[in-house]
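[step 3/7] inverse_fold.run input=structure_tokens len=297
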């Protein structure tokens, strides 16, 4: 298979193409293999990624920078970049490794990427290797959130749910697509307590689980946790509601008062009418006496 497309994606044209072929050769295929190049590439990769983090995150201390670097150069991160480059189609594997699916094994693909970095370093020097690494990691670095200290989506989701005292999510593969050497997995992440079900896809089950976990975390953070308090209305809204309630009470009281006043006015009008027609005679003298019964002598 021609390596022109791979060199184009890397942004480096090898002066010595045998270095690239060696970087793609697994030990199961024979000698020379890529193990020594992997050793070299690992060191160059760590150096360049450390420099990228140092320049990009100017307010993070040494401990957090170390954790971020470890996350960016771990096997899973290398595997995802290798998948983006389509390295599995260029690998040179022994027959047994090929039959067992080694072309899609994260460890083999991650090691191969490091070997390619080592090959670029030998072919073009440190600046050439740095240019390749920066191009490969630029889209990755843009998604790094230093507040998570390199934690993956599944870990963040688990910590979020535990903090809310909610059950952990359940992951299940719901479908696989494509040929054996380029399968795409679909995984569902379910949080029954929150009635959340999110699908994620990826070139491996793990990658699909991470994608589903990211979606589930976004959905969980957007709704009220089960068993938790619903968010209070904003203060302005509560004030408006209180005013509305007070207005209703005042209106009711005002209605009663108005009715009483109307009745009183009607009574006064009736009394006035009686005064005009007849003047009451003074009460008899007996009526002025103490109404209580007389005591026995």
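[step 3/7] decode complete -> sequence:
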């Amino acid at each position: 298979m021609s390596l022109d497309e791979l060199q184009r994606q890397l942004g480096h044209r090898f002066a010595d193409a045998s270095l690239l072929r060696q970087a793609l050769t697994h030990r199961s295929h024979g000698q020379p293999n890529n193990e020594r190049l992997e050793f070299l590439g690992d060191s160059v990769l760590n150096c360049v990624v450390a420099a990228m983090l140092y320049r990009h995150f100017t307010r993070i201390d040494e401990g957090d920078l170390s954790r971020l670097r470890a996350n960016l150069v771990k096997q899973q991160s290398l595997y995802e970049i290798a998948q983006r480059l389509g390295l599995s189609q260029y690998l040179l594997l022994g027959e047994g490794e090929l039959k067992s699916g080694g072309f899609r094994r994260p460890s083999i693909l991650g090691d191969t990427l490091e070997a390619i970095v080592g090959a670029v370093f030998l072919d073009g020097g440190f600046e050439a290797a740095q240019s390749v690494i920066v191009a490969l990691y630029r889209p990755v670095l843009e998604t790094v959130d230093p507040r998570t200290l390199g934690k993956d989506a599944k870990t963040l989701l688990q910590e979020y749910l535990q903090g809310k005292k909610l059950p952990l999510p359940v992951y299940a593969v719901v479908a696989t697509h494509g040929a054996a050497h380029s399968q795409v997995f679909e995984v569902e992440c379910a949080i029954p307590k929150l009635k959340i079900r999110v699908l994620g896809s990826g070139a491996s089950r793990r990658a699909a689980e991470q994608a589903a976990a990211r979606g589930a975390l976004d959905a969980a953070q957007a709704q009220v946790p089960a068993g938790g308090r619903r968010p209070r209305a904003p203060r302005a809204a509560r004030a408006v509601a209180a005013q509305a309630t007070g207005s209703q009470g005042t209106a009711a009281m005002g209605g009663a008062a108005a009715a009483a006043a109307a009745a009183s006015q009607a009574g006064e009008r009736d009394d006035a009418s009686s005064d005009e027609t007849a003047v009451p005679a003074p009460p008899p003298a007996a009526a002025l006496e103490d109404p209580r019964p007389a005591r026995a002598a």
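[step 4/7] annotate
Confidence is low (pLDDT under 50) at residues 233-254, 256-263, 266-280, 284-297.
The two ends are 139 Å apart (CA to CA).
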